[in-house]
Amino acid sequence: MKNYKLIYTFFLIGFLSLGQLGCKKALNLDPLDTIADGNFWQSANDFRLYANQFYGWRRDFGSSVYDAIHSDMRSDIFTSASPNVFSNGTNTIPAADGTYTDAFKRVRIVNLLLSKAQSYSSPAEITRYVAEAKFFRAYIYFELLQVYGDVVIVNHLLDTDAPELTAARNSRTEVADFIIADLNAAIPDLPLQSAISTADAGRISRGAAQSFLSRVALYEGTWQKFRNNADRGTSLLTIAANAAKAVMTSGQYSLFKPATLGDSALKYLFILEDAKSNPASLKKSDNTEYIFTNRHDQTLAPIGLNITHNCFANIQYVTRKFANLYLSQNGLPVDNANNTSFQGYATMTSEFSGRDNRMKYTLMPANKAYWRETNPRVTWLNDAADLASASTTSFQPTYNSGYHNQKWAAERSVPSRSEGYDYPIIRYAEVLLNYAEAVYEKDGSISDADLDISLNLVRQRVNTSMPKLSNAFVASNSLNMRTEIRRERTVELYNEGFRIDDLKRWKTAETEMPQDMLGIKWTGTEFQTKWTNQTRARNSEGAIIMETNRTWTEKNYLYPLPADQLKLNPNLKQNQGW
Amino acid sequence: MKKCFTNCYTAISRIHDHLRKRRSFSLAVVLLLSLQLVSFWSVAQEKTITGVIRDVSGLTLPGVSVKVKNTQVGASTLGDGKFSIKLPSGQTNPVLVVSYVGYDSQEVTIGSQTNITITLKETNKDLDEVVVVGYGTRKKETLTGAIATVSAKSFEDKGSLPSPLQALQGQVPGVIITRSSAAPGDEAWGVKLRGAVSVNATEPLVVIDGVAADSFRELRLINPSDIENISFLKDASAAIYGSRAAGGVMLVTTKKAKLGRTTVEYGGSYTRKIVGLQPRLMSMDEWASGVIDARTNDGFLADDVWIRYAQLALQNKGGYVDLTKSGAPISGAFTDVKDFVFLDNNWTDILWGGANSMQHDLSVSGRNEKSGYRLSLGYLDDDGTLRYGNNTNKRYNIRLNNNFNLSDKVSIESVIAYNRQAQVSPTMLGNVLGQGYPQPGLPAEGLTGKPYAWGGQFTPAAFAQYGGDNKLKVSQLSISEMLKYKITQDLSFVTNLGYNTSYAGRDTQQNPINWYNYTGTILVQSNPTQAASYFQKSGATTDFYSAAAYLQYVKTIAKDHNLDITAGAQYERNEYDYSFTKILDINPSLNVLSGAGATTTGKTKNHYALGSYYGRASYNYQSKYLFDFNGRYDGSSKFLPVNRWNFFYSFAGAWRLSQEDFLKGNSFISELKLRASYGIVGNQAGIDLYDGQQLYSLASATGAYLGPGQVSYVSPSGTMVSYNRTWERLQKYNVGLDFGFLKNRLTGYVELFRHNNNNMLLAQTYSGTLGANAPTSNIGKFRAQGAEGTINWSDKIGEFNYHVGGVFTYATNKLIDFGGANVTNQGFNSAVQGNPLNSVFGLVYAGRIQSEAERQAYLDKFNVGNGIGLSSAIRVGDNMYFDNNGDGKLNLNDLVYLGSDDPKISYSFNLGADWKGFDFSAIFQGAGKRTIFRDDVNWRQPFRSVYLNTSNQSVDNHWTPTNTDAHFPKYSTNGTINSYNYQASSWSVENGAYLRLKNIIIGYTLPTDLIKKTKVLSRLRVYASGTDLWEHTLINDGWDPEATRTVSVSQRYPFNRTLTFGLNATF
Lengths: 578, 1067
Prior knowledge:
The complex is a heterodimer of chains A (578) and B (1067).
Chain A: H1 2-22, E1 35-36, H2 44-52, H3 61-64, E2 78-79, H4 98-118, H5 127-148, H6 172-186, H7 206-225, H8 230-250, H9 265-269, E3 290-294, H10 307-311, E4 317-318, H11 320-323, H12 357-362, H13 384-389, E5 423-427, H14 428-443, H15 448-452, H16 455-460, H17 471-476, H18 481-492, H19 499-506, H20 509-512, E6 517-521, H21 526-530, E7 543-547, H22 563-568
Chain B: H1 2-21, H2 27-42, E1 48-55, E2 65-68, E3 74-76, E4 82-86, E5 95-99, E6 106-109, E7 115-120, E8 130-132, E9 137-139, E10 147-151, E11 175-178, E12 190-193, E13 205-208, E14 211-212, E15 227-233, E16 249-254, E17 263-275, H3 284-297, H4 305-315, E18 320-322, E19 339-341, H5 347-351, E20 355-367, E21 371-383, E22 392-405, E23 410-426, H6 429-433, E24 453-454, E25 457-458, H7 460-466, E26 469-486, E27 491-510, E28 514-516, E29 523-526, E30 534-557, E31 561-584, E32 599-621, E33 625-636, E34 645-656, E35 669-683, E36 695-699, E37 705-706, E38 709-710, E39 713-716, E40 728-741, E41 746-762, E42 777-797, E43 800-817, E44 827-829, E45 839-842, E46 845-848, H8 852-862, E47 879-881, E48 896-900, E49 905-915, E50 918-928, E51 931-932, H9 937-940, H10 975-981, E52 990-991, E53 994-1005, H11 1008-1012, E54 1019-1033, E55 1056-1066
Parallel strand pairs in B: 1-7, 13-16
Antiparallel strand pairs in B: 1-4, 2-3, 2-5, 5-6, 8-9, 10-15, 11-12, 13-14, 15-16, 17-20, 17-55, 18-19, 20-21, 21-22, 22-23, 23-26, 24-25, 26-27, 27-30, 28-29, 30-31, 31-32, 32-33, 33-34, 34-35, 35-40, 36-39, 37-38, 40-41, 41-42, 42-43, 43-49, 44-45, 45-48, 46-47, 49-50, 50-53, 51-52, 53-54, 54-55
Helix pairs in contact in B: 1-2, 3-4
């Protein structure tokens, strides 16, 4: 009975189609080209893969060398072809602000890992990734604290009905405590630098988290101290000093100071690559100063920005104020009454003479040969072959401000945008300077012993014969210890994204930032004869005025909240003065 | 008598034995047995009737059933259409009942005849029209919903049809069909049933032979001549399709075998395409004098580069200046060019020309009581009108529709179709159509045939010619198997299994092009460069499975109470898999994935499933009072189990007044039916595939540089998980009136409808603290309403049959609640609260400045602080605008609603007649209430870019002191002035209303007598037809009134006028 077989078959199929509906699998479909929640968070490796994305949020050259929130482009160190509105105090309230919204997107991503970690069956396997998540949540919140001050604290995954969406902002004190708590929670679960395998190179270490804690606590500690909150300041500065000290005593890091490079050690530290990038053929493995980096490699992860082109005597117009910060080799400021060795400004090279060795390797003295990625070093010996390849054998600084930058400009042959030196998010020199400043601001004084284990190591790295900073030296030369500590910090961390944040926390931006931005002294100097088409006005001293009519008011210490967010949550309230 | 019965009994048992022994038997056996049966009767009977049965054309019909009324006696006709039947005794006035599939049954009184000829007429479907309504059919007279149908007739004689929709524009009430291109294979026909229902693009659900299609766009793969009919479920009667019914449902049924005898049909047509409306660019003289005019207006003097260029052009018209042999004629300018060429070319003429297309259809069908089949083959070869490069579309169709009656109780319908599309288009079509065309003068190609470039300007034609081909091949296999089992007289069980699979493979090759000067001696530029050349191979597989089963119970109780109940379940599942590989730096002669450059890949894979229970209950009393209930309970894999299932339903009722005693027999009113329906249907648009679970994507080795290289990482999707989202639920209201007057010579209907979408899915923005995009949620409100109707008159005067008719649709909508977001931009706005979708806003035009005094007064009043780009640069001859809100300022607060880009009105008129084999029909189709603000500024605004040509609509129609009422303002090349004059205003928008002669057909069917002499042919018809041959439009910028507002890339492909010659032959 063929027909009946057929009928039965169809009946069967018909009932199967009915039956399928009852079967849950028929309608419970998991995505195929994306991963569903139920199929993820199954192993420590899932947590690791997820944590990997955090590393895409780190600062890089783009966030300090180019115009960005923390860049020196927004401080009194640089000006450029067109005035920077954040630097001259004319920035306005933006309609929307990716800095604000991206930060909270990242907070959510971190909180997702933390919430999943709570239900993971073997918590011991994932402590490292939980610690990384907490570090990065602190990292994001420090950004928010620096930019906006008070912000809403989100410490768990929010739904659309969460009170945090309509809440007023948490105070910066709560935010700072939240950051410190996260870092303190992360620190014990992160490995020491020496315990990080090559497979994990670049991941966050315990030392990095401690260093970051010293940065955060110093920032907020001085912020509070200079805003009439001494007790809060002291307690935070204690945290900063202790955290820095922990790094210093860990034995994991040391300043990059190879004898083979002599006084140019710092110059080549910043452009250190595994390909020959310095006369001593040192490689990245010789550098134990970088604590937390955004790693690059010519082939695996090039910087991707036209970094040498940008930094080689080009768009960063260095100010006279910064050039004058360099001490003379006698350890005295150029305007110190006791400083007899300063050569003055008569020629294009005179002010470079007898100065802190960092000056000649960071800025570009005139009449010298320079190399760059497209006109590279050949023999690294300054010989005829090298000179034949140089970009210039007698540099003439007669343009822009007359002071020119060379930090971050490669000397080796490498395609533009493919430079591969690492970006130091945190380096040991900063930790040493954090320590010195934290101790000084905490106690109102600092011992010579504390200076010797911190600031003087930095100062003497490439200035072996310069006198140490000591209480006696300060006293005998009518110096100010605070000024010298700050000077050392500004000089050492130049072009690394610290200056404007330092001015804000010291509450000195209101005096430093409105000052005219000046270039070289032109009137009556060699510049006047060589730079004849210089048309900018000069000040009473004869220095060219790059920018004038600058302003800085109290409101500029924080960025304004974007208009759309105030509309979406009116309880946020705009920052004071905006 | 007793003996007779015994014999009879014996005979029947013998047949029965035969049936039992032989499990399958042929028609011949049946015939043999019938004859045997007849022979038994002959023992007792005397009178034998013989005869022959023919169809109207005179052909004999085999297999026709002939029975003697009120007896068991019967016979079937043989191959020659003849039958012989012995009348049982006692028949005082014997009547023969003749029946045959596809023909009207007939009762013939024999009287004293012994040899008769009976002519059977093919069933006239109109009289007893059956309408497909989803999981079943209905008699048209018992319909309660707003269901429109079109028959195969609609697709006949129209020439080659890239999509069946093309044949239906404006012709079905409530069905709004739009088009956006004439590019072969990329026509982009759009269809909306009663307009928009949501801000989330909602398309009608298309069901082909019981199996849902992935999208209505799949219709393009079907051979239109295979379509038997299409039902459009426009109101809540679509609720039987539940969550997918919001945009209405189109039920497509393909042709089955109808006639009894084997029939071979051939239809072939040749179509000539002629380029239709599109902007005509300025000629050399028009452009040059215009440039001189505009530059002079702008205050430039005779030494102006462009004035000098224009004068040089006029002097050298038709020639060229080779800068390698002579000095620069315009010193200090055009330093990057190698020559000046001044050919009086018109790019529209160069790029577009006539093209041909053809369509061939061949079908074989046959049917008897046990089985029927129809095998059809189709071939479409459609050439594009772009004269450069390869641009064609081919379609191949095979369809086999079988039906088997396995027994009185069991039947199977089987549809197997294979559709193939092969399309070729230039890869760089975007460069040909996506930009402004150079000023007149540039040659189509260099003297030696090489691509020509003038500085940074490339001749568009060469991009098509040399840029490589983009080849698409689509293979689609569709299977639908339906088994019907009659459990009892009233109860049937139906199972439908469907499977669609399609593979769309695309090979895109972009070749490098070297561009030369006119003499072909200097390489000017490479674009694309060798490094940018690429080959991309992509493939998309879509699989769709459907299994449905339902029970149907049909019963008439106590004569007057008619019940029809259907209930069933269905499971549908769709799987999609796409991937591509692209490789750079290729050798153009290789047509495979190989190249020296980088390789990129991508992939998408997803699926969804829908489980459903559905049913319909119908009851009517004497076909006078009718009630219908439709319901569907849908569960979708897209949602979380907790909110996965949703119920959709509709109620409908109708009252056939014409069946009431007080109207029965009324000579004027033949049919009058009042209908009303209400229901809730769902919308599948705007929903993601996997709700309710956090999704993560894996980025492979593209993350931070950690350890030995860039790491892979997993990141969550930026949109939050939705836990409470569900389908938009639309309330659909409908009232309708069907009428037929004067013996149904005047028929038609009118309908009023309203759609409320009170839980429209909208995105909602929360405080950034949330850290993710919130999922869309059911918070919006939308309403659409309108009216539609049709009216037809048909009659005959002697042998002259004629009909006239009209179709009208009006549909509008309003965004009632859009979450408060009601930012209004000047120009086009896709969604503004309180207005229809796709609204156009602009200033109110206040005429043209005609005097210096008027200019000064206007500037004094409005110049300071205006927000509309007004500046003191404006001149006499420029536009003025009204301060609409009267606040003394001209700014964006003065914007008014100027209309909607969606045509609110769609209509058509048709007329036709036939007389002695000649037939004629014509359809005029139009749209109204459409406001277009054209984005394409380069063609719309004369001399906006001085080096680009523009539409010649402004020639002799722009403001000059002697032509002050011209449509266009005073010429200028000043960007500020042009932007001011041509900003969105009641002047700059276009009225998209049009009326066009959509279709005209003249045909002749050769006389049957003549045809019969061929002994092969049974019918032969020849015809000529034309489409879009004439129109009336109010457009000012030269584009076709149906063109899109953006006219970007393939939308610039001009629509065609076509002439078709064809023939239909039946064998």
